[in-house]
What we know:
This protein is mainly α. It is about 70% helix and about 0% strand.
Amino acid sequence: MTAGFSTDDDPQGLWRPQRQLNQRVEWIVKAIFALFAFVSVATTAGIVLTLIYETFEFFQEVSVLKFLTDGRWTPLFRSAEFGIFVLISATVMTSAIAIVVALPLGLLSAICLSEYASPKARAILKPLLEVLAGVPSVVYGYFALLLVTPFLQSFVPGLQGFNSLSAGVVLGVSITPLVASLSEDAISAVPQSLRDGAYALGTTKREAIVSVVLPAALSGIVSSVILAISRAIGETMIVTLAAGQNPTLGLNPFVPVMTMTAFIVQVSLGDTPAGSLAYKTIYAVGMTLFLLTLVLNVFSFWFVRRFREKYD
């Protein structure tokens, strides 16, 4: 028996071959979907297991305490040192600058598209905004290096040719469509009845947005911001081209720095022998990067579940 069909409707069994064919097709479709799900899960598990194994091999030669407490990062030098916080500080600094740029631009763009723009204007502006997400990161990198940095040097004294300031600014521009698009979806999902209730109490449009709409869409907005932070932390070409490759501990945005992804690019160019300690450092750095993004995703998942608004 299938849904909506019984044997009483087909006393002579005329539809039985068709039912059997439909059941076979459904089984094949389920098998294909299960195969795709298995491949994605197996790929993720393979990546994680590879990182764990190679990171374990790295820590067989370098102590965890040294990895966490050294103040320099020189794994490719004769006197190798492995202070991962040198790379973490640069990564956090460029990502923080990017969020400072992307959050107001993206959130204000989302409010404009959702609450002020007409449907026709929204249908034109939102795709134009999302075009920025399709620009290759290498283009952003050269844009930061050849245009943004010289522009900032004209009025920022002491700004060097490679620096995290211009890299962070352009990185913020590149993740702005992510914040704007997801935040706009979250704001648009707020029921119109909440807005009407706020207007009935005598609030202005601005007051309704600030006091009612944004709090109701908070979980979606925070999720978009955390996703944008994860994207900024994992960005490679922009920081490699614009921030430089000088591992410097500190939070000075005017000097060259090296992020975790920039170091992985440097070692992956092929000059470092495979299997050497210097080569194994990319897995230790990759595991650190993976843990950072995992923490952000777990926090995002918890925040959404904790503060998500449900409407009937």
